[in-house]
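Worked problem 6 (solution included).
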Amino acid sequence: MKRSLSALLFLCYSITIALPLSADDTVTLKARQLVEDANASVQNFATDSNMYYLQQNLGKAEGVLIIPKLIKGAFIVGGSGGSGVLLAKDESNQWSYPAFYTMSSGSIGFQFGGQASEIVLMVMTPNGMDNLLSSSFKLGTDASVAAGPVGVGGQEKTADILAFYKSKGAFLGVSLEGVGIQVRADYNAAYYGSEIRPVDVLVNKKFSNPHADQLRASVADLVKLSDTNVQ
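Solution. The predicted structure is:
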């Protein structure tokens, strides 16, 4: 009897793991992985001395868009780029849960050559954040963008959005003029369980997912480095 029961349970388990994931399940897993990759990127940027400006000034930002992976060569040929997550800061300096976006339709001009694997965009102005809350916009057209200063003593720049990227272990400047950013509606819906607008996550705080708490904590820890530099 015990052997029969064990065999039946094993058969049920085998059938379960053999079943393919549904499309919704696959998107949910990809969205969750993107959040985890973004958390790893934040920790990478937090510990690199070349990211001194970001570490010292993130507390001044309205939000931060983290794109942990880009498709190799995508921007060189003008194709699609990579997905990322945006977190916004409220008046009490608390960071929101993430909303999902994708970067595409343009070519990145790398100041030092090479290809980017990680990009962090510091949203420095209300105009920059307002554009991100729309369904899509273009960097350099709807919101100004500049390469973020690199290293201690890097030249400070003024723009709606400052961009930093990591390429082959080095953190360098990057030009994103003409690159489009769009809401990743499928990831947002899968991650929060319903169709949403980014503003309802980032500003109105109608949706949350505890899975992103570690990412929020990592961003908050990075901001602590800049506390003494915030006016």
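Discussion: Residues 23-229 form one domain.
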